[in-house]
Amino acid sequence: MQAHLQDEVSFQVSILDAVGRLVFSSIDPNARAINLSDREHFKIHTQRQIDRLFISAPVLGRISNQWSIQFTRPIYNVTGHFDGVIVISVAPAYFSRFYHRIKLGESAAVTLVRADGAIVARSPREEDGIGMGTKIANSQFQRSGPHLTGFYLQASDVDGIKRLNAWRSLPKYELTVLVGQAEEVTFDRYREQYRVYILSGIGMTMLIIGIGYFVLASARQKANAMAALAESEARWNLALSGAEDGVWDWNIRAGTLQLSRRSRELLGVAADVLRATPETLQKFVHPEDLVHVEQALLMHLRAKTPNYKVEHRVLASENGERWVLAKGMVVRRDENGKPVRMIGTYSDVTSRKQEDSAVKYLAEHDSLTGLPNRHLFADRLRQCLLRAKRENTCFSVIYFDLDKFKAVNDQMGHEAGDMLLKEVGSRVTQCLRDSDTVARIGGDEFVVLLPTINTEEHAATVAQTILETLLMPFSIQGSQVSIGASLGVATYPGHGSTGDVLLRCADEAMYQAKAAGRSRVCVHGNQRSGLA
Question: Which residues neighbour 144 within 8 Å (Cβ) at sequence distance 6 or greater?
Fold first, then answer.
């Protein structure tokens, strides 16, 4: 079977839930949950309610947009109730390659037919899908009774060529293999044709048995069938070496994690099989994301969520820090409901996360100075207020604008004014701790958040330090520029119990400083001497 997989067979593994909605597709892990309840390979399992393999007529896939044959198997939960269908789609092109290998000649045809006479696959396949699903009428093999093999002469319902057809029935799979040779060349090579028929029948039988082995080990042993299906799904996913997404297969009982080539690239690991331990997870998940990943994984393993889906950073040594979208699903549980095997994918979402981060940064920061803007400051003030109420602590805000800034703009131009604003932001930042915030909220107006202070005097001292720094001359476009600032201070909870009230009090204190002569600090309700 591994040889078939390596032969670039086009296939797809899908899982439908109990109402026919697509919940997993190996060719598109992000596929929308489309409704496939009208498909024959789903309806048949809801109608006959038996645990049995079904092989469909060729269908045009709604996800792959390609012709395929569906090998399906019902899924039952631990209570024995119908819980969905697992689908393995095999492209009819596989049979075309088989036809060319056995070299029957240009006029020959090899056909795989269902019990109702519908053509499942045919080689050579006609252009534009002609022949796909065609029903063969009045064929001897449909009236054969207990016989498993035979011959009959009949014109083809697909291309009209009259052929002598040798057939062999595969009752276990409700299929018949036909090998036909044109009438004019048949009798010249009858003996050779019989040998080819036997080989073709055996080869086709081995194909069906091979696929069936991974779909089920025994129609009477459902647990073994599900295990075989899970293993085949994992291995087929790992065969998709050209896919952009990485595939992983976690054998929970054995404690092993098998990775596809793409998964190894994304995670920055060399081995294709790892020991699945907590330490293994810590090796390639960013420490800040580890708890989030562990919680999402644990919830799915305990059947609290329908699937596992989480975005996290990986510590790939060669590629640096990258973001991946990890998705997966437990495909097998034991009789006690404990997970046995889980299969999933990794998608590289680094570019999207970087774009999202850039958009978020622009939305939260002043484009000129790079300082937090009014929106980000309001969020930090809200968080600070919640913590102060919870922990019964104090914090302060300092509101200030620049004195003589308009004169710089008028005399030296707006470019010089922009340079001055950047320098002001840089100087104030150097006066603060990493936990403090300085934001530009418009024009030459700035506001500072001090989330941890001991007393009101402490906040006033910080404001005085800012004032002294801003009174030092600036070098702008080769000229020395001197400005000042008027600063107002308000403290929680003494001056207000909400963010809006605190900002209003700090703004009022700033105007008290202006009224007192500018270039000074004023605490709300109490003027503090400044430097003129």
Answer: 150, 169
**Residue range 177-186, pLDDT digits in tens:** 878 877 776 6
How many whole angstroms separate alpha carbon 398 and alpha carbon 510? Answer: 9
Please, what is the angle between helix 190-215 and helix 93-102, to 10°? 140
For 493, phi then psi, to 5°, come to: -100, 5
**How deeply is 222 buried, as exposed, middle or buried, from its count of CB atoms within 10 A (0-12, 13-18, 19+)?**
middle
Q: At residue 434, what is the residue type? A: D
Question: Alpha-carbon distance 268 to 380, whole Å?
Answer: 36
- d(C-alpha 129, C-alpha 107), whole Å: 19
Do residues 125 and 96 lie in contact, with contact meaning Cβ atoms separated by under 8 Å? yes
Specify the pTM. Answer: 0.45
Q: How far apart are CA 55 and CA 66, in angstroms?
A: 17
Place of tokens 């016989």: 147
pLDDT tens digits, one per residue of 482-523: 999 999 999 999 998 999 999 999 999 999 999 998 999 999
Give yes or no for a contact between 138 and 162, defined as CB atoms under 8 angstroms apart: no
Are 532 and 517 spatial neighbours (Cβ–Cβ below 8 Å)?
yes
Sheet containing strand 109-114, strands side by side: 119-123, 109-114, 175-182, 162-170, 149-155
Six-digit token string for 90: 């095999």
Q: Identify which of 216, 229, 474 has the alpha carbon closest to the alpha carbon of residue 340.
A: 229
Tell me the C-alpha to C-alpha distance, in Å, between residue 139 and each of 116, 126, 197.
11, 21, 18
- Torsional class of 129: left (φ above 0), alpha (ψ -120 to 50), beta (otherwise): left
Q: Edge-to-edge strand order for the sheet containing 521-523?
A: 437-442, 445-450, 395-403, 484-492, 521-523, 526-528
What DSSP assignment string belongs to 138-162?
Answer: S-GGGG-TT--EEEEEEE-TTT--E
**Token output for 511:** 């105007």
Q: Is 465 exposed, middle or buried (0-12, 13-18, 19+ CB in 10 A)?
A: middle
Distance CA 337, CA 343 (A): 17
Among 99-103, 214-218, 507-511, the range with the most confident prediction by mean pLDDT is 507-511
